[in-house]
Design brief:
The protein is α/β, with parallel strands linked by helices. Helix content is about 25%, strand content about 20%.
Amino acid sequence: GYPLSVYTKCTMAIIEGEPFFERRDQFGVDKGAMRAEMAVAKTYDPDLPVPAAAKSYLIAGATVHPISGPEVKNANVLMTDGRIVAVGPKVSAPGGTVRVDGRGLHVWPGMIDAGAQLGLTEFGQVNQATDAYENGPFNPDLKAVTAVNPDSFNFPKVRYNGITAARIYPSGGEISGQSGIVRTLGGPPEAMRLNEAMGLDVNVPEGVALSARYRMTGGELSDAQTRVRETRKALRERFEAASRYIAAKDAGEAMPTDIKQEAMRPYLSGQKPILFHVRDENAIRWTLAFVKEKKLKAILVGAADAWRMTAEVKASGLPILLVPPVAQSPSEDSTVDEYDPYDTSMAFATVLQRAGIPFAFASQDWETAMNLPLRAGRMCAFGLPHDAAMRGLTLDAARILGLEKDLGSLEAGKMANVIVTDGDPLEVTTSLRYLFMDGKPVPLVSRYTELYKKYMGRVVKKD
């Protein structure tokens, strides 16, 4: 396919007449893979006009992609007072409605990053410059959204690529704190928050990798396995201590209130989900058993080795927030085990989709979070259907995060977070033409558009 498309992958590399790489389809994904023969040239305009202020907006004559149903050509989307009022080929608009010409354009629901650290970190080289984590292993009372910087220059970057909501998660320690959901619009911190405490983030220690075992002596392997068992035992004790505290407190026992233990209450009762950050098969198996034993509501985050055990994960009913690779290079996105197929991480979503395991996409970053749609799109080159990729960024993400009543699809009654594009939002050559958040038009500006205009102004056009 066309080499600059996200739907293209390398099948062979020849250097000075010698083949250095030849792709092997280890997961049987190539037959259903998307491909692009040639990129479609589009006109980029950094100064697109923003629709005038109004109570209602009608996007007219566009191809509408509701996600919850099939696309509708020559259709309309009506938004009033921050909500979607109607979607379809025939929509009546009230007086005073501002009409947006959607002919030749595509309308989609705003996309969701199911795990990012936007607003917590501006640059990661200096520990003091991040609010993503706190000292200590046990911080269930901390809420990540309270530390979000609404003026972070990363928010305009992700908005420009169509991401209108994100789960902001804490990191560090055994129990890092609580994730929250924010709009990516910025503004007053409180106004950004859609849910300030949707889940508890827990880090499960990895087992000892098979490739690492071959390099260890018997004593070193035994010590490593002991450290893993002890760390998991300590994590289990955190949960059991909280259960004992809550039981005693509810029984009326006289004791001081412990805010950390109180923060565990909705998660131990199954009222809210616990997000278990896992990577290797050993950690996933431990987590599945632990969740079943404690009867917890849970979500797996990362779970890169789940492709080895799809039957067990499917039986557990747990969804996965998967992290699409930043690049196709194995050195950049290494597999869990060095002997795994090089494209394991690229084919991961396809394996989950075929197994019927629900998933959504998470950037797990702040700096490259803006590229999440492109990263998800590259998985389509490895067999993931385009509609499944879009659901993982919209409706499926909303369902897993408990946001489906308001976000994830273009349906009447839902929040009017809407993007209008000149093509496929997962393709690098596509640009947003309009962005609506809470039913209001948002200027398509970011650090990059400002730099573009600054330096393009120095270019002298020749006749």
